[in-house]
Write a structure and sequence with these properties.
8 strands, eight-stranded antiparallel beta sheet
Length: about 220
Amino acid sequence: MSNATLESNIAKHTPIIPVWSEALDRAEEENESLSMVSSGPLFDICMAVNRAIRTPEGKTNFCVLAAAAARDILRAKGWKAEVLRVEAAVFPDDRTRYGAILGSDGDGRRRPAAAPGMWWGHLVAIAEDRWILDPTLDQSGLAPPVVIEFPDWWLAGKQTIFVPSTYGEIRYTAFPGRGGYKSAPDFRPCRRRGIVESVINELGAGGGPSAQDNRTGLI
């Protein structure tokens, strides 16, 4: 069975949608703009996981596999780390273009069951209750993998953060307590074991919390 057949993230995002200018205006009005981390061990881990899960065809829509692998790598290097279901949206600065949503929570109506091996959601890794690592945001086709330092209140899931980049505004909403990803085939430890070992070997020793010095920069 091919990797494509076993994808756990391909059906979890809504179709590409028009950019709503109100979302960008609200980000500016609420001053929720944050910076991305563009160097250091967290960035290195995020990018290494993206490379490791990428198929020969360039597909990276394996968020469960990538987030779980990133969590395990972080823990191996001494970080406190978990995974978290989120909704991620990318809104290009050009408001005549289309945006994309990964892991939409829907419109409140009951959804049909996801296809076998798939899951309705988007998963990221969380380091030290302070940073988002999203190794598969590039499946949106609009932004690269990202590491973002977030405010304490964001984990409660009641508010959204808006993050500027050279690709436009990136929006994240947390859904704490959601565990549907645990039944996805890509969450099985055997699926990610080789990825975790490969990335740890690639990055070498070090890369723990003390090496992350709040490096940020617009990417």
